[in-house]
Amino acid sequence: MEEFKHLDRDIQGSAKRWKKFVESECPEKEKLPQEWKSKTSLQRLCMMRTLRPDRMTYAVRDFVEEKLGSEYVMGRSLDFAASFEESSAATPMFFILSPGVDPLKDVEKHGKKMDYTFDNNNLHNVSLGQGQEVIAEQALDLAARKGHWVILQVQHTLTKSIQPQHIEFSYSRVHNDAFHTNLFYF
Hints:
Layout: H1 7-13, H2 15-22, H3 41-51, H4 56-68, H5 80-86, H6 103-113, E1 123-128, H7 133-146, E2 149-154, H8 164-176, E3 184-185
Parallel strand pairs: 1-2, 2-3
Helix pairs in contact: 3-4, 7-8
């Protein structure tokens, strides 16, 4: 492409400037070196994809905000209390997370209002993986009997060691056994 002609030569010839840009913590916020700073937003995005693909999520966010407006990149906050009212021991809450989202704070805040805290030992948080399934099942069993809350966290994607049947098994055990009406799991 004509717009990127001689980019390779410029990177070699101005290695210090390009190194500073590439090693920047947030290169998508930095100006490109020399003549490249006058490139369009889309061209900058293409260069970012080549030079720092790990920062594309942030670069695309900035691009969308610049071209469409901040309302298209603003995160929506969850009304956890309203969602909680719609759930029950028979209807758990599932959160599919994206960068910057942490519903654990909302669960803890709402739990505190209802006297469910880690300090009271009636709010349990288990990160699944590496043998934690047994601990998760114990927490679910205890919660089913005593009406505790359980947070089961699956990091990133389901790995081979954490198959969906583990979660389904725990879920069906709670539903098939007698369980406390205050039981909640997230």
